[in-house]
Amino acid sequence: MRLLVLGGTHFVGRAVAETALARGDEVTLLNRGRSRAAAGAELIVADRTDPEALRSALGNREWDAVIDTWSGAPRVIGEACGLLAGRAGHFGYVSSRSVYRWPMPHGADEQAPVVDGDPDEDGDDDYAAAKRGGELAALKAFGDRTLLARAGLVLGPYEDVGRLPWWLRRIERGGRVLAPGDPARRLQYIDARDLAAWMLTAAADDVVGTFNAVSRPGHTTMGELLQTAVTVTGSDAELIWTAPEVLDEVGISPWTEMPIWLPDDAEYGGMHNADVSAAHDLGLTCRPVQDTIADTWIWLQLEGDPTPRREIGLAPAKEQQALKR
């Protein structure tokens, strides 16, 4: 394919670019040129938030497909889609399961109620509303040529959110490591490279529609994930599994201070229990957790730790407070 990736140098966008090049696609990246582009990709330098700069950069060129990972103001997606709708056959948008109304019900499929979103919104303070607005902006321009991939938890190399990198670095330090809840807690996530591969195949095969793009529930467990991290890092860490009640008493927040983990209760349980049969019926496959963790560790050794998008992870003093209990 002739593929245009809007972004293409960080996390999922980088995975898309590298996977497409490995497939033999002709890849063009459009971004501000501040990060290294994948070898073999053409780079168009432009600030997509500037409509005139975007229009000038795109010129009159055409592509078979476009993939966009934008998480900011929906207006920015709408402007890009408006320029590209007549010059590209397929638009794949990396959305999020966060668009579903909270709390997400157990076993929810793509028909679950979603939050309100505005395709013309110029702000991004509300992540869920911004992603829903982005979906609506894409649909407004590309209509039935749109693929909405509602990703869940995304892990793997290039993860600049910082969840798996935090766990790997904490376990690397060794000693008694606070581990949250039940080690048998089932997890549902997707490796960025598997998401990229599925979206690229969907683009080539003209697959459109809305899909929960994440692994099946129980693809791994919290215990398997952390124990694999111990093995991969060669650490002497001792995982101390701690009841959610203790974490709550100490004031430790799931997801942010205990990355990846959420208690299996009425509020959070649906986050790791989505119905993903539609995407898997159309070829979505997810690699073993051992591969995701090992490759993420290799990436950290080669390129160093990314600057997290937001503060994440548990302060050592707070961890010790919980361990003493």
Give me the secondary-structure topology.
Elements lengths: L1 E5 L4 H13 L2 E6 L10 E4 L5 H8 L4 E6 L5 H11 L3 E9 L30 H16 L3 E6 L1 E3 L7 H11 L2 E5 L5 E2 L1 E3 H13 L4 E5 L6 E2 H12 L4 E5 L1 H7 L3 E2 L2 E2 L17 H5 L7 H15 L12 H9 L1
Parallel strand pairs: 1-2, 1-4, 2-3, 4-5, 5-6, 6-11, 7-10, 8-13, 14-15
Antiparallel strand pairs: 9-12
Helix pairs in contact: 1-6, 2-3, 3-4, 5-7, 7-10
Structure notes:
With 325 residues, the chain is of the alpha/beta class. The chain has two domains: 2-154 and 190-213, NAD(P)-binding Rossmann-like Domain (Rossmann fold, 3-Layer(aba) Sandwich); 159-188 and 219-271 and 289-324, UDP-galactose 4-epimerase, domain 1 (Alpha-Beta Complex), CATH 3.90.25. The chain has eleven helices and 15 strands. A seven-stranded parallel beta sheet has the order 3-2-1-4-5-6-11, with helices on both faces. The chain has a two-stranded parallel sheet with strand order 7-10. The chain has a two-stranded parallel sheet with strand order 8-13.
Short account of what is shown:
By secondary structure, this protein is α/β, with parallel strands linked by helices. The protein has two domains: 2-154 and 190-213, NAD(P)-binding Rossmann-like Domain (Rossmann fold, 3-Layer(aba) Sandwich); 159-188 and 219-271 and 289-324, UDP-galactose 4-epimerase, domain 1 (Alpha-Beta Complex).
Main sheet attributes: strand count, strand direction, barrel closure? 7 strands, parallel
How many H/I helices?
11
What is Rg?
20 Å
| CATH homologous superfamily identity of the largest domain | NAD(P)-binding Rossmann-like Domain
Strand order of the largest sheet: 3-2-1-4-5-6-11
